[in-house]
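Model it.
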Amino acid sequence: MPSRVEPCVATLVDVPPKGLGWGFEVKWDGYRAALHIERGRVRIFTRGGHDWTSRFPSIAADAPTLGANTAIIDGEAVVLDEKGRSDFGLLQRALGRRPGVHGPGEILLFAFDLLYLNGRDLRREPYAERRQLLEQLLAGRDGSIRLSEEVDANGAEFFRVACELGLEGIVAKRQDKPYHSGRRPEWLKIKCVRRDTFLIVGYEPSSVLHGAVGRLLLAARKGDAFVYIGGCGTGWSHQESAMLREVLNAIPADQPAAAIVRKGAVFARPLLVADIEYRAWTQDGKLRHPSFKGVREMEGPSEVYEI
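Modeled.
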């Protein structure tokens, strides 16, 4: 049994693949984890090879009940929100030192591949066969180790529904391919990207490029007020960044339109909006992975995203 297997990593693409021979499942938003079961010992490794067994106590405790003498299970450690969606922010807080709403005992492992079972190395077998063995191993289980269900659906339709449900995205896998470590084209990930308009209330100067913006400070509407929803520091060229700083310097404000405490921030009057692509919202109301797509004058408060 291998002491460790470098994980297969999905390649990011814009749209789901077409044609036969692909399996689809939900893309979980958590930590990649490899569960190693040996006689008398359970270990859980992160994608980088760190032993986090002690940080996933419920998964480690559930592993011996699977009935496998030896196994390597590939999956994602997650915490689910009240709607059953994986939430990376909740997972981070569950792993944190300070008490949170969710504890380490609520971390689940959604298993999506089986690399080794009872003395047999399965990595050369096609994904469909590995998947069948995994389903047999995890049949009917609802504990801390669960099966990441494969969805029998058209990829484009499944992706549309996943995004409507607020999921991170989907993963597509070639059914006839063996398991290869590293970033591979036979595993594809398609992420749900959201795009909305937010008010620019200021910026933080770049610490790398002279005369440029390092981070735009953004706000959304909430009732009759604006609230700070985080910053955006990517998506522009050096020339665009310098232009943004010049424009914002021309409309200075003593106080921001939304309550912000940021050291070194430069505030601007609420006259401009930015089009921002992002993946999701954090639990504390901030944008996750925002990217700048354009700027324009605000025609009215109604065009600013409302919480």
